[in-house]
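Hi there,

I know you've been waiting on this one. I reran it after we fixed the sequence typo, so this is the corrected version. Both the input and the resulting structure follow.
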Amino acid sequence: MERPFVVLLGTCDTKLSELLFVHSHIIESGVDVRLVDVGRTPISHDDIFYRQSDLLAKLPSKPSLASMDRSSVVKTMIEAGSRFAKGMYLTLPLFSGILYIGGSGGTSLGASVMRSALPVGFPKLIVSTIASGNVANIVGETDITIMYSVVDIAGENSILNPVLENAAGMIGGAATVYYQRKPQNNKNSEKESKRRIAITMFGVTTPAVSAARAELERQGYEVIVFHATGTGGRAMENLIAEGCFDGVLDLTTSELADELVGGIMNGGPGRLTAAAEMGIPQVISAKLRANAKEPGLVRVFIPTGGISMLAEKGCPFHDERADKELFAAVIQGLEDSGIEIIEDPRAINDEGFSAAMAKSLIDLLNKSS
């Protein structure tokens, strides 16, 4: 019987003994393993399933690493490794997980391959010497799991080995679950998936999102909520661009304000662009900055009673003059765009307001289907 396999990614010229240790423990966890060498210097060993030269052969330029500096080597191997991993994901159904072990440069390499080649939901694990610091640039907007090695990955020892054994068990277990969850292997999987809606939420818009989600779920949609923390908005935009959603209810657009004034929950320049570029239905609260591919499938609601629970009358952020300036700017910015604007006297967290946005999105979804 065929078993799912895990790709073990690493620089075999510097970490071979540690990789072989992990290799053996992944097999003990009940899955197969394929060791892939992304190191600078070619290494020969029977347990290396894919050599460095196999990866470089995937690049049109067929580069040689010998004359490159370290930075160029890492960039080249990221490109080669990403092409390789993407190809495996698309063509080998038994490929069910990926594990990288390494130091700082290697962590950047492994994470870049995972972020660019493999989707959310595919098991990705990194054991790294830099995992206890700020790992935002490593994880990005993905579901990479990162584990601190505690000591340097430089020779087997009584502290490192248990960490590596745990990692092998983790990726083996995750790969098994992933493989069993695949529709072709899961007899209980739904024959018809629901249409997906993305919604943004923050604490100050939770009542609105809860009401809208309830309305959409009553109508048979799957609703996926993103926390508008900057990373959450970027993750949503990435998934929209990948075609994961049928519609967007963007109730919480505060990440745009953070970008404008230098806040810590900045959604980046791509925020509020993917749905417009994909031409899928979207209903937005108060803000918009992208030219929509299908303006007839976009509506902007303006809750003049307050754009958050803190901005309603009598609350700390209530500022009637600022609200008027904001709403006027939105209306002026959308002039002649073909996008419908709905001014509503209710506050954003009024259950009727959010239900109206949800029903408006359903209307656009029906028109687009």
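Quick highlight: Residues 65 and 118 are 25 Å apart (CA to CA).

Best,
R. S.
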